[in-house]
Amino acid sequence: ARASGIGDWAVFQPEMGRVADHRQWVESELHVAFERGDFDLHYQPQLDLPTGRVVGYEALIRWHHPERGTIPPGEFISVAEETGMIAPIGEWVLRKACTDARLLPEDCFVAVNISPVQFMTRDFVGIVERIIKETGIAPKRLELELTESAMMQDRDRAAQILKQLTAMGISVAVDDFGTGYSNLAYLIDFSFHKLKIDRSFVSRMETDSNSGAVVSTIVGLSRALGVRTIAEGVETENQATLLRAAGCQVVQGYFFGRPAPLVLGDAGLVVPADR
Ligand code: C2E
Ligand code: CA
Ligand code: CA
Ligand code: CA
User: Fold this and answer.
1) Cα 214 to chain center, whole Å?
2) Cβ neighbours around 22 below 10 Å, total
3) Where is the EAL domain positioned along the sequence (predicted)?
4) Where would I find the H helices in 168-275?
5) How many alpha carbons lie under 13 Å from residue 193 in its C-beta half-sphere?
6) What is the band of 248 on the pLDDT scale with cuts at 50, 70, 90?
7) What pLDDT score does 178 carry?
8) In the prediction, which pLDDT does 269 show?
9) pLDDT tens digits, one per residue of 120-143
10) 3-class secondary structure, 104
């Protein structure tokens, strides 16, 4: 059984000894896994609510271990951040997503999760710039998903980096919005294009009016700032209806499509499998 709530990575045994063992195992295996090419990206569609059109795909990393099977990112990203492995892994994710974007319909973007640690590394902007050049994708087809915590460590520097990235034409979304800092003043200083409403609000909005109020407030805030709103973790038609009524423009979740590897579609195009 999965114990929940201990740290960021899922834990298979509640005793701390096992937790430490598992962490140790992940740490020792990450390096060899990266060299061996165990990692893969799955893609989950993001849809424009009014039209139902797929506008982009979020890239989600998967680790396929030869003996232990698929290990979810929640179990290794934080370890990769602590050990520094997030730098090569994060760069690999960016390059792979931009390469894959060339196989997707031209009007679709790829959204890539950027760890706060990766965001703050010395040459982050240079790396992104290089990958865009190498792969030849239009910068507007790349969206970076950054959490509030990534931006709050060193606000001036973060504002500077965001300015450079958006000046290049890259799109920026604030991920897990509403779960982090309550101080909204930083929003004024930062250049970004989207607020991404965290799944915790979406999953509760049917039963808890406070969550619905939070969703409406985020949509209102987005409007006032001139950015778009996307909701993640949409699992039911009712949630989609409520989000639409609240004025949310883009949706993503199991109801519309699960994360899946790229496959060859009927028309010869390579598109992610639906569900
Ligand atoms: P996230 O960025 O908030 O991504 C959304 C997570 O919710 C994903 O889990 C996705 O598979 C899952 N999800 C999508 N739709 C639904 C739904 O309708 N219901 C439910 N219950 N879940 C849904 P996943 O793939 O396990 O990723 C977990 C977290 O790991 C991500 O949270 C993100 O923070 C991190 N992550 C994933 N890929 C990468 C990566 O390439 N780089 C970095 N730095 N972090 C990553
Ligand atoms: Ca994300
Ligand atoms: Ca989330
Ligand atoms: Ca997250």
Assistant:
1) 21
2) 17
3) 23-273
4) 186-189, 199-204, 209-225, 237-246
5) 16
6) very high
7) 85
8) 45
9) 999 999 999 999 999 999 999 999
10) coil
pTM for the structure as a whole: 0.92
Confidence band (pLDDT; 50, 70, 90) for 273? low
Interface confidence: ipTM more than 0.90: yes
At 196, the amino acid letter reads: K
3-state secondary structure of 78: helix
Q: Residues 6 or more apart from 49 whose CB is under 8 A from it?
A: 240, 243, 244, 248, 249, 250, 251
List, chain by chain if needed, residues with CB within 6 Å of any ligand 1 atom: 44, 59-61, 72-74, 77, 90, 93, 113, 115, 175-176, 232-235, 253-254, 259
Kindly indicate the confidence band of residue 18, based on its pLDDT and cuts at 50, 70 and 90. confident
**Range 267-275 contact pairs with CB under 8 angstroms and sequence separation of 24 or more:** 269/103, 269/105, 270/103, 270/104, 271/104, 271/105, 272/42, 272/43, 272/44, 272/45, 272/57, 274/45
d(CA 219, CA 197): 9
CB neighbours of 212 closer than 8 A, spacing ≥ 6?
205, 242, 246
